[in-house]
Amino acid sequence: MIASSFRDCEAWRAEGLELSTTSNEACKLYDALLTQYVTWRSDETLGGFEGCMSALQTADPNFVMGHVMSTGLELASTGISPRLNERLASAVTRTVELASSQDITPREKLHVKAMELYSRGAFKKACDVWEDILLDHPTDMLALKFAQDGYFYWGAKTRMRDSVARVLPHWKPSIPLSSYLNGLYSFGLLETNFYDQAEKVAMEGLRLTPDDAWSVHSVAHVYEMRAEVDKGLKFMESREKDWQVCDVLASHNYWHWALYFIEKGQYEAALQIYDSQIFRRCKASGSMLDTVDACSLLSRLEMEGVCTKERYGELLQITQPHTDDHVTLFNDLHFLMASLGAKESGTSQRLLEGLQELAKEPGDNQQHQLAGSLGVPMCQALMEYDQGNYGGAVELLHPLRYRAVEIGGSDAQRDIFNQLLIHAAMKSEDKHHQKLGRCLLVERDAVRPNSPLTGRLMQRARALHV
């Protein structure tokens, strides 16, 4: 039997979030699945996410919101494309058909609409529908979390912050999962450069819930963006026992830990985290978050002059099956890092050509609409850099640097493209590019003072262009 603490039909109704099912078991399993999503933690007593989805299906096969959440979570994982995967595409269709054949609430109808838009890559339109839900139902955690993911995937940082700010007053401490709003709000604050407030809000979240891995993650970002490396290392180590149990986010938090070591120039320590935590977890989970982190870490180390070729070969085994997915530009760029690093030119070319093809007729898909003007040239810049054509990489990347936010991800994750542009500019034989590289370093130093990585690059620039 599922834990009695999870909400049944009556409990959901009492909160103004009625679910169209008569099965208390289905309602409780819905709550259990939502809890795993919010806490970034698989509940092994329920068989984790998959076991919970399966039990939910059994409890009430026609429970629309059960289908909305299960299918929505698969879509939000970005690891499967309904464009290519018939099972996922038919799950979307089945949910829409179920909804139209039943008398469900207006809120549930909007959830179905948002999920269907999301499946087509219409991220912005889906987020607008989730916000419609939150206007009338500000404590609908599923709408809030799906909206947060949607905003993250198209780089809508301010919307991500404000979406949480609008609902905060409606959440009372007695509402299950309420403490996790601190982490959500903190992340939006830090992505819009309110670092002090972000740290304060996240620390409040950790006071209420010490194993809130997203609040830990938020603080890790704050220290990363301020280049407070030693503070970050101490914080991650002191909290490790709390957050490492949150298996869905643990690898990403280890990635943040490794970034501090790269910042300090302690490459062996970063590689040790890659081998013992990030790649090991990535191989086991196949999760896109874990996979892009692995790609990013190897690329950053490579830019720092560390040999990572053999590791790229292993990583390619995980990224290669996703070459044709094209769910997000952010994922595509990271898969490309792996195929370039592994010197697998056929895979790199296939990824680029697939993206070029989708850019011709993008339909509703927001990422494919951006592919021609943003995704493709960014991919080409990576390829030029890999081939040693540093001037070509600068010419492609420099005009896009203020648009890169549109590929989604966080400032810390996208920083790899800032670093790539700086390295390309410094290595270019064009004097104008070299000057640009020095200017970018001055700019970087102004917003992240005392960064050891920036200091090393400045020294290298001076040595290169005497």
Automatic annotation (TrEMBL):
InterPro entries: TPR-like_helical_dom_sf, TTC38. Gene3D superfamilies: Tetratricopeptide repeat domain. It comes from the Eukaryota. Keywords: Repeat, TPR repeat. Belongs to the TTC38 family. PANTHER family: TETRATRICOPEPTIDE REPEAT PROTEIN 38. This is Tetratricopeptide repeat protein 38.
